[in-house]
Structures are given as structure tokens and as C-alpha cells.
């Protein structure tokens, strides 16, 4: 999660909402990305989507059954859907997101009967730093 | 929808599940893509995601408020989430998807209170051809 938090700091430095994600495969980091929809001019460029795409490229396959995803914020519906498509084994996330999260909030995507893959899920990992980073970012933006 | 169906035929020819998507802006096609997770080695490479990324690149912005998306199959949760993030104005889709769809099935994403953008939605456009294409593809794959 330290690497995911570092990617989130990088996103903040680029003026993006500070969320970072890392994918590990057998304990080794195979992808790391910050949130970058503005910089990349791509509304799908959330940290999780970018990390999944990077990992799939690096490993040369579109299923990541032996990979874990670490992200500083509860994934939204788009990213939770991508995690299911990628068959990620374990999802570790930091801060919860009552407004946009889709794991423990809103559609609770992995609990839907139509969800075809549910990772093991661990929330609240590094939550304090992840949430603080987001709070500071939005406070500075309002200032 | 003819162009989206053509993109779906292209996906089938490449051995991918035949779904195609097109984005129009003021009546002009700005992006067109077929489903390609295997070919692109990218679990997020659904037709809708590819078309949204293409359109955002072409228009040089990450919000597509003046764009419509045409897709041959009811979008899944990942793609419906991306459509909301991209602020697509109107969504036209062909066949419904009781197994994986997230518009009129499963999480019904655009009806969730946490959904921050809901396009106008028109289902069943070119449904017969879109559904036939999928049926033929899965029949041939089982054969």
C-alpha cells in the first residue's frame, strides 16, 4: 500500500484527484499508476484501470487471477467492474468512498448476483493517510 | 447503429465476443471500436471503453457531454460507470444482457443514488441483428 500511496501523491502533484493503485503478482509489483483522467485526456483513466491495463500488458494476458490490487480509495463501479473482468484475486483498499464507492456503498457490485467474479476484499488498509491525502487535496482546491 | 454493428462484425472476425460501439458528436462519428480484450491483452478493452477513450483523445477533453454512445449490447457495470464518468448525453443500445448488463439488469447502475450522471437511455435499437450476431458467435464456439 506504500507504493499505492506514493502513486496517489504523484497524482496530487499533477493536479489530479489523489488516488493510486498497484498490482502485485506473487509479491512482486507489476504495475503502479495514479489517477489521471485529466492529464491523459481519458475519463476511464482511474488508477485501478491504468494499473490493470499495465499489468495485463506486462504479463501478456487479459486475466490476472494470480494478481492482487492495492488502491488507496474504495473502487467506483467502473473500476470494480474492471477488477471482476480481470479476475483479480484480492482487493486491498484504503479509504471508503460513500459518494462514489461501489464495493461497500451504492451498487455493492461484488454482492450482485450478476457479478461473475468476486475477489477477496480487505478495506481500511492505510486508510488514514489515503483519506488525509484526499481531504488536503479538496481543501486546497476550495481555498 | 449500423456503424456499431459493423464494429461488432469486425470483433467477431477477430475471434472476440461481437460487440461494437460508436460515439457521435453533433451527428458525426468521432470514435468506433469493437470489443477486444483478448487481442489488446486488456480486460478493460470492451467496445464502449475503447470508443470513449478514442473520442476523448479525438476531442481533446475528458468530458463528452455533447456526445452520444451507440453500442450493440447493454453495457456492463464497468462500461456503464465509464459512460457516467464521461458524461455521455445519450446511450443507445441493441440487445439486452440479463447475465452481464448493468443498465436494466443487475445493479441498474444509472438508477443508483450514488450515480453522478445519468444519460438519456434508449434500448432495443437494432436488437435483432445485435443479438443474432452474439448467438451465432457462441453457437459456433460451442460447435
Any overview of this molecule?
- With 143 residues, the first copy, chain A, is of the alpha/beta class.
- Chain A has one domain (1-142): 3-Layer(aba) Sandwich (Cytidine Deaminase, domain 2), CATH 3.40.140.10.
- Helix content of chain A is 36%, strand content 20%.
- Chain A has four helices and five strands; from the N terminus they run H-E-E-H-E-H-E-E-H.
- Chain A has helices at 2-13, 47-59, 77-86, 127-142; strands at 20-25, 28-34, 67-73, 90-95, 120-122.
- The first copy, chain A, has a five-stranded mixed β-sheet.
- In chain A, helix 1 (2-13) packs parallel to helix 4 (127-142).
- The radius of gyration of chain A is 14 Å and the shape is globular.
- The A-B interface holds A 37-38, 40-46, 49, 52-53, 56-57, 60-64, 76-82, 84-87, 98-102, 105-109, 112-116 and B 37-38, 40-46, 49, 52-53, 56-57, 60-64, 76-82, 84-87, 98-102, 105-109, 112-116.
List keywords for this structure.
homodimer, 143 residues, alpha/beta, Cytidine Deaminase, domain 2, 36% helix, globular, tRNA-specific adenosine-34 deaminase activity (chains A, B), tRNA-specific adenosine deaminase (chains A, B), Cytidine_deaminase-like (chains A, B), EC 3.5.4.33 (chains A, B)
Share of residues in helices of chain A: 25-40%
Return the average pLDDT of chain A rounded to an integer: 96
Oligomer: homodimer
Q: Describe the strand arrangement of the main beta sheet of chain A, using strand numbers.
A: 2-1-3-4-5
**Which CATH class of chain A is shown?**
Alpha Beta
| CATH homologous superfamily assignment of chain A | Cytidine Deaminase, domain 2
Q: So how many helices of chain A?
A: 4
Order of helices and strands of chain A: HEEHEHEEH
Shape of chain A: globular
Look at the helices and sheets of chain A and give the structural class. alpha/beta
Number of strands of chain A: 5
Amino acid at each position: 500500500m506504500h507504493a499505492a500511496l506514493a502513486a496517489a501523491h504523484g497524482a496530487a502533484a499533477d493536479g489530479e484527484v489523489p488516488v493510486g493503485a498497484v498490482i502485485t503478482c506473487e509479491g512482486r509489483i507489476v504495475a503502479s499508476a495514479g489517477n489521471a483522467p485529466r492529464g491523459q485526456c481519458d475519463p476511464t483513466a482511474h488508477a485501478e484501470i491504468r494499473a490493470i491495463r499495465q499489468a495485463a500488458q506486462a504479463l501478456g494476458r487479459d486475466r490476472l487471477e494470480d494478481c492482487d490490487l492495492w488502491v488507496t480509495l474504495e473502487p467506483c463501479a467502473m473500476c470494480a467492474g474492471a477488477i471482476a473482468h480481470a479476475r483479480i484475486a484480492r482487493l486491498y483498499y484504503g479509504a471508503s468512498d460513500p459518494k462514489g464507492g461501489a464495493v461497500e456503498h451504492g451498487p455493492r457490485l461484488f454482492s450482485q448476483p450478476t457479478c461473475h467474479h468476486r475477489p477477496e476484499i480487505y478495506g481500511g488498509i492505510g486508510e488514514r493517510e489515503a483519506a488525509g491525502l484526499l481531504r488536503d487535496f479538496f481543501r486546497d482546491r476550495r481555498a
